[in-house]
Amino acid sequence: MVEFSMANPKSKPGSESKSHSRNVLEHFAGLNLSIPPILSLAITTNSDSQTLVFIGTVAGDVISLSLNPNSGLSLHLRVNIIGKPVRSIHVVSHIKKLIVLSDGFIYLLDLNSLEPVRKLSLLKNVNVVCKRYFSRNYSLNNGIIIGNEDGCFFAVGVGKKLVLVELVLSGSPVILKEIQGDFTDGIMCISWVDESVIVGTRSAYYLYSYASGQCGVIFSLPDPSVMLPRMKLLAKECKVMLMVDNVGVIVDSEGQPVGGSLVFGEVSETMGEIGAYVVVVRSGNLELYHKKSGYCVQRVSFVGEVGSPCLVADEEDGRGKLVAVAAGSKVMCYMKVPSEEQIKDLLRKKNFREAISLVEELQNEGEMTRETLSLVHAQVGFLLLFDLRFEEAVDHFLLSETMEPSELFPFIMRDPNRWSLLVPRNRYWGLHPPPSLLEKVVDDGLTGIQRAIFLRKAGVETAVDNEFLLNPPSRADLLESAVKNMTRFLEASRHKDLTPSVREGVDTLLMYLYRALNRVDDMERLASSENSCIVEELESLLSESGHLRTLAFLYASKGMSSKSLSIWRVLARNYSSSHLKDSHGTNHVQDTTKDISFDQETAVMEASKILEASSDQELVLQHLGWIADINQLLAVQVLVSDKRTDPLPPDEVIAAIDPRKVEILLRYLQWLIEDQDSDDTRFHTTYALLLSKSALDANEKEHSTQNSEGVNQKEINISDRGNNSIFDTHNRERLQIFLQSSDLYDPDEVLDLVERSELWLEKAILYRKLGQETLVLQILALKLEDCEAAEQYCAEIGRPDAYMQLLEMYLEPMNGKEPMFKAAVRLLHNHGEMLDPLQVLERLSPDMPLQLASETILRMLRARLHHHRQGQIVHNLSRALDIDASLARFEERSRHVLINDDSVCDSCHARLGTKLFAMYPDDTIVCYKCFRRQGESTSVSGRDFKRDILYKPGWLVTR
Fold first, then answer.
1. How many CB atoms lie within 10 A of CB 690?
2. Are residues 162 and 183 in contact, defined by beta-carbon separation less than 8 angstroms?
3. Per-residue pLDDT tens digits for 163-197
4. For the whole prediction, is pTM greater than 0.85?
5. Averaged confidence pLDDT in the chain
6. Would you say 161 and 167 are in contact if contact means Cβ atoms under 8 Å apart?
7. What number of CA atoms fall less than 13 Å from residue 141's CA on the CB side?
8. Which residues share a beta bridge with 152?
9. Which residues form the CHCR repeats (predicted)?
10. Do 446 and 475 form a contact (C-beta atoms < 8 A)?
């Protein structure tokens, strides 16, 4: 791979040449006849191997010439009509006839034999004739198949009269219409397209509608005495070009101008059409004008007889491949140069824009495919590339749909390489040198510029742009422009559907180019995203250039986690070392520390991303330590990640965690217990012990009177950062919640640790787990003085003696503590009904103020009596309800039913008579047979009395 070295470009190469000249026509065949001067000319193509050229002379001869691709132009047939000048010849190929105008009459000749000659005597004094042309849209709308009509339509000018004629299949003319218009100056030229007949006189151009019979002026001629009307039917588009002096105005079949006007160099003698061009001939010169752009694209000179008129004829079917030119007695045929050769000629002349326009035009006309357009764009791109116009070259590369990215690989990496065989060979026209490294392209280009400068001083014109000659670019500028634009092309190519091998080349070489431009962000973005880079091609490049971050990203994207982690570990340590070094150095430590800290955090963050998804136990535990040294939160995320498919074994993880990193171990155990629902008693016990130790340390620090000014500030910061970064709640709060919620830890072990501490609530929870009710009540009531918690615990015990025991603790606290009379009164007030009044009176201390206890004791006694009486009432009500229910049941069983002769079974509808029958609670009656079938719990209506119990108003006890 080439090492690029460059700076920003300062100039842009010059624009392309503006010349529009190219070879559209080439001389194909010619013949110098020993005949009178030629007065009329026509041409038609019979087949791919033969074209006929018809000429009419001033002596009345009609001569047929055969044009063969191999033998050229030769005399075919010759007849003489009446010895009068032949004014015009029209080929009617679909009926194999020629329409010849001579001496005011129209003659019909056979197309192939020129015999027999037939004179149409119906038409006299004819001075102009033309065939009718049908446009494609008109033919489709009217069901006409062009070239296969039964007859032929043509228009003739007879003095000041326009006559429309149909020539039927028998050869007889039928006059369709005779129009006496405002043709006072005489008809000099006619064109008939679809329903419109355009007539030219000395003073104006007219439009006559065959459908409506209306005639109107299109426009008047400015000076009838000088300019003669001339028109040319453009058969390809079925439009008509009307001449005004040297200006051609193109109109449609409605007489409306379309497009722009064509301005010729001088007034032409005659005009023809070939493809997208108009051919004009005058004074021994043939000129070719593009219809749309109006440019004169070619000028051809030929030698004719002095004083003889020049004529041009084209293929009337609009094929646009051949034109014939006659001057005197000489006939020349010009064939259209193949489109591909025209494009090549434009490219050689560096008319790139015009070459592309030509291809687009040919594509629109169906003469070239979209693939050819893509090929030309690529060809133009290569030519511009070797002209050192890299931005324009890549623009054309991007417009080519078929150009493959591998075609630019040889410009970036020296052959041979792993992608050499992917480069397509011999696809273009050989207009540019073979691919070579960008350095060589630039050097060769600069050498060419220097040579051109020398030749220009010597007066020799060169093809090098003036911009380069006036302001020669530097090598660095050109090289940077080349690399930037190559990068642009490869970036766009990444979005295409490429084969795996080509995609590998694109991404790998794109990394080379990014490195040459020192675009570090783009390098890292490519390496960290999904890519097809070949690691073996980039390892040494990135490592030697110091782009270790990019290499780490690349390793990670390719699944080479171990190598990536090793780089991140090295980078994290280097950042840390640099930070420590700078912290003792210069005065601007603050900004440097901020940057280095950010880089270090980035390194550990990227490493943690890899480890979070890795199920490799050995790899995770190998790198856990240095990650924990920098960021404990990320270390925890690595351990508890849900991205990995196989969980890490907890025992190995716990063993690998540094015992000094208590917070990490705590958070991991919490994750195992709360998120993973681990029921391992070891983890629960270890978690409880670690929380207890943390709570003890925090409690000791909180109550410590040690002066904090002597404490190492760095250790405090690290400790605080560890505590705050992992847990949102205080350790003691988490300890209390866990001790209450878990039943899987060993309370004895935890109690041994906290028994001599001031963690009274925690000890109460542990004693409760061990069933030490008295100790729990003592802690809650006496140590914590939490009356509500103590009463709640008694409620959980559910025995009256627990309340009495609590009352005794309030009245006779230990360790010389004063009696808690208010707490005792609160207990009597809230739960007095649970206490025996006599026992309460026995336990009351004589020191208790009477005003505190009297009202409470009195209310307790009253409540006791009230509860007793209320119980009696409930008991008596229950007995009454039972008696009422028994009575209702007896009444229901004692019901009488009257059966007569008309009574029937509700199930089978048989008369009951003296049969046994049964009645259900819903008052339905069935015979005994149906009763046995139905059963006693389901009635005829389908109601199941065991599931859907029936109640009657008389059964409800309302007393």
1. 18
2. yes
3. 999 988 767 889 999 988 778 888 999 999 999 99
4. no
5. 84
6. no
7. 7
8. 167
9. 638-819
10. yes
